[in-house]
UniProtKB/TrEMBL annotation:
GO BP: phosphate ion transmembrane transport
Top-level taxon: Bacteria
Entry keywords, A to Z: ATP-binding, Nucleotide-binding, Transport
GO cellular component, one term: membrane
UniProt KW Cytoplasm keyword: no
Classification of source organism: Bacteria, Thermotogati, Thermotogota, Thermotogae, Thermotogales
Molecular function GO labels: ATP binding; ATP hydrolysis activity; phosphate transmembrane transporter activity
Any Pfam family hit: ABC_tran
Organism: Pseudothermotoga lettingae (strain ATCC BAA-301 / DSM 14385 / NBRC 107922 / TMO) (Thermotoga lettingae)
Protein name: Phosphate ABC transporter, ATPase subunit
ABC transporter domain segment(s): 6-246
């Protein structure tokens, strides 16, 4: 039986009075890659950001409905830092901190109160290896992270997320600023980490969704118009909007 990690019940989201998510009901499976697709402005990023409450501080944002993470209503959670350690986010543009490669990955570990230098070193190395970056940076650990290439910086951000041992990695178009080679490396990496983690990714690329995702959610004007196994939906979409999106008539 597939384990459900997120259950979203009747989620509506608003910026002031503008409704951008419209009665979304969906369950997201654990240790799978779920892609969120749909035309520009349909609410993909807003949905993703709801999953770790990143919209909380956005002016004018409000929502109704419920999001359960492992059965717990996330809007009842008091310790958001702890929650965001479990449900972490990687953004569209790589955003390494202005510090060394090593310190970027060690940052969250130190924040957790880990002081043992050997343990930090071991966890940093491990995270960089899981992010398929170790071989490229093992002799650059003390160099500023901003000196890495864009693709390396994005894998560093993924390593930073992995270091604190999350359960879910949310990614908002993580490859849109990268070239095809860097994109392929990130896609391979996501496929590998999905054996251990739940991955939810916003992507504009049908090819990317097909290559890496198990399930896909199609949003259209804030509504979830289709959800299911990616290969099946691509072959036989049931909704007219999905069909139009797949054939490039809307995008
Ligand atoms: N901070 C904000 N304040 C007001 N409106 C917003 C804000 N952020 C997003 N919106 C609006 O909410 C709607 C959904 O935006 P969202 O970024 O979630 O869509 P998206 O599908 O991710 O778009 P894209 O593919 O272009 O990134 C859009 O109409 C957008 O203009």
């Amino acid at each position: 039986m597939d384990e459900i990690i997120f259950e979203i019940k009747d989620l509506c989201a608003y910026y002031d009075t503008h409704r951008v998510l419209d009665h979304i009901n969906v369950q997201i499976k654990s240790k799978r890659i779920t892609a969120i697709m749909g035309p520009s402005g349909c609410g993909k990023s807003t949905f993703l950001r709801c999953l770790n409450r990143l919209n909380d501080l956005v002016d004018g944002f409000s929502m109704v409905g419920q999001i359960f993470y492992r059965g717990q209503d996330i809007y009842q959670i008091k310790d958001l830092t702890q929650y965001r350690r479990k449900v972490t986010m990687v953004f569209q543009r790589p955003n390494p901190f202005p510090m060394s490669v090593f310190d970027n990955v060690a940052y969250g570990l130190r924040l957790m109160g880990i002081k043992d230098r050997y343990l930090i070193r071991e966890k940093v190395e491990n995270a960089l290896k899981r992010a398929a970056l170790w071989d490229e940076v093992e002799d650059k650990l003390k160099k500023p992270a901003v000196q890495l290439s864009g693709g390396q910086q994005q894998r560093l951000c993924i390593a930073r997320a992995l270091a604190v041992e999350p359960e879910v990695i949310l990614l908002d178009e993580p490859t849109s600023a990268l070239d095809p080679i860097a994109t392929t490396k990130i896609e391979r990496l996501l496929e590998t980490i999905a054996e251990e983690y739940t991955v939810v990714i916003v992507t504009h690329s049908m090819g990317q969704a097909l290559r890496i995702s198990d399930e896909v959610m199609f949003l259209y004007q804030g509504r979830l118009v289709e959800y299911g196994v990616t290969s099946q939906i691509v072959k036989t979409p049931t909704h007219e909007m999905t069909r139009q999106f797949l054939t490039g008539k809307i995008g």
